[in-house]
Amino acid sequence: MPYETELRTALLALQRASLLTRRVALTTLSSVTKSDRSPVTVGDFGAQALVISALRHAFPDDAIVAEEDAAALRDNEALRGKVWDYVQGAGLSDEGAESSIGGPLKSERDMLDAIDGGASEGFASAGSQGRRVWALDPIDGTKGFLRGGQYAIALALLVDAKPVLGVLACPNLPQDASAPIPTEHAHEKGEGEGYGVLVSAVAGQGTTVRVLGSGGVAEGKPTKMREVGEAQIGSAVFCESVESGHSSHDHHALITQKLGVTSSPVRMDSQAKYASLAMGLADVYLRLPVSASYQEKIWDHAAGEIVVKEAGGMVGDVQGRPLDWAQGRTLKENKGVVVAGKGVWDMVISAVKDVLAA
Ligand SMILES: Nc1ncnc2c1ncn2[C@@H]1O[C@H](COP(=O)(O)O)[C@@H](OP(=O)(O)O)[C@H]1O
Ligand SMILES: [Mg+2]
């Protein structure tokens, strides 16, 4: 199967990184504020080191674009030591699986180099055919991670500026699609209690859900989005960011009102929203940016996009056009993202257009 090794590596890398984020989540969390005023934690740095070292081991020639860099750690011995403790403590229980992603990191220096290995210019500079770029968000939804809500470790492989593989590790999503999605105190629920999924997709191969474990790759189950038609839109489950600064709750409310949706949207951080749709936990995801200063990276949607599309859903901008991966590193203002099943897509896009035009 195409991308078999890439998928296996990505699943194991994210599983290992989630061992670290789960452990960090059980401590008293604190964050450092970055230059863009967004928070970063020990979990973000540690997860990035673990995933990049796995990718570099398996695919040394591939470019990697990741959210964090190691500057803050190089300057801060205490913080660096803390991250290193967690990185050393995160190893898969299956030795064969662990060694297939390069085994434990050997030194603090290797850890810093791995973190800085995510500084590629990515496909913005990729001209030649067959160019491969991995896009990693080591903790997507850092605010959700800090408040005990949903977060995801998100990894996608883009070939010639198109997502061909995506994996979302969502430690706080329920494994059972009929269970409610926890939005607080979620870190207290672990694998043993039925929480933690790995949702993955490869172009043309469908979307698969696995239990997020601590050893080798678990058996996967194919998943599809729920089939919701126009007649059922009133009872569809909508989801949106917790943060109204990330997308406009007011616009979303006007859209759902127009569509006659009866229940309030489920608020959830991170690309766990895409995973929820792919798993049939929710039906529509609206993300309408609110300000011109909003410079969200397009990478933050790559894994989610393929996971939803391969589960039978649609992902586009507010005009219903496909997301433009070649446009560079940011999701341009006013474009936004709409995610829905095929049965309600036209109707949702038409409501979005009406509300934005008003
Ligand atoms: N002001 C801003 N500018 C750019 N991106 C922003 C932003 N505020 C939030 N984001 C993006 O939105 C993501 C969180 O989305 P959500 O609200 O769906 O949880 C953040 O991911 P990180 O948590 O990885 O930084 C970040 O990429
Ligand atoms: Mg992040």
Automatic annotation (TrEMBL):
PROSITE patterns: IMP_1, IMP_2
Keywords assigned: Hydrolase, Magnesium, Metal-binding
Positions annotated to bind Mg(2+): 67, 137, 139-140, 300
One Gene Ontology molecular-function label: metal ion binding
InterPro entries in the record: DPNP (IPR006239), Inositol_monoP_metal-BS (IPR020583), Inositol_monoP_superfamily (IPR051090), Inositol_monophosphatase-like (IPR000760), Inositol_monophosphatase_CS (IPR020550)
Catalyzed reactions per annotation: adenosine 3',5'-bisphosphate + H2O = AMP + phosphate; 3'-phosphoadenylyl sulfate + H2O = adenosine 5'-phosphosulfate + phosphate; adenosine 2',5'-bisphosphate + H2O = AMP + phosphate
Keyword 4Fe-4S listed: no
Cofactors named for this entry: Mg(2+)
One Pfam family named in its UniProt record: Inositol_P
Domain of life: Eukaryota
EC number(s) on file: 3.1.3.7
Biological processes annotated in GO: inositol phosphate metabolic process; phosphatidylinositol phosphate biosynthetic process; sulfate assimilation
Function: Converts adenosine 3'-phosphate 5'-phosphosulfate (PAPS) to adenosine 5'-phosphosulfate (APS) and 3'(2')-phosphoadenosine 5'-phosphate (PAP) to AMP.
Family recorded in the similarity comment: Belongs to the inositol monophosphatase superfamily.
The protein's name in its UniProt record: 3'(2'),5'-bisphosphate nucleotidase
Organism this protein belongs to: Lineolata rhizophorae
UniProt lineage: Eukaryota, Fungi, Dikarya, Ascomycota, Pezizomycotina
